[in-house]
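Data availability (excerpt). All sequences and predicted token strings are deposited with the supplementary files. A representative entry, Mitochondrial 10-formyltetrahydrofolate dehydrogenase, is shown inline so that the format can be inspected without opening the archive.
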Amino acid sequence: VEAVHLIANGKAPRIPQPKEGATYEGIQKKENAEITWDQPAATLHNWIRGHDKVPGAWATIDGQVVTFYGSSLLDASVPAGQELAIKGASRPGLVTKNGLVIFGNDGKMVLVRNLQFEDGKMIPASKYFSADETTALELTEEEKKMAEDIR
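Structure token line:
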């Protein structure tokens, strides 16, 4: 009752909470989620997974911001793949059939499964080099006849 009266009368003491020991982290922003490449693979993995989905850990590839999603540590021999230069990385990534393999400064690997471009388009990382390819639809003679009938 006494505390309620102090508050009601505007005389309750105000003690600011100390910052020391506080565990709350503010809302993460995209500009703070850039990947710092000079770190061990486990740290890179934790950074990517920690920012998955919002705001998304990102790096610059071919002059555009690419966001990385769905990482896992890869404990195997270096897979075959096509090299991909990533700005700031000491070693190029590898686009493999399973995704994008990136390397920590300890030589260990992280597999990233999905990539999102600045325009919002998301692709499996394994399809990075084939993302812009389009395949022409080829119809059989029977299908061509059916298309004409439909027209």
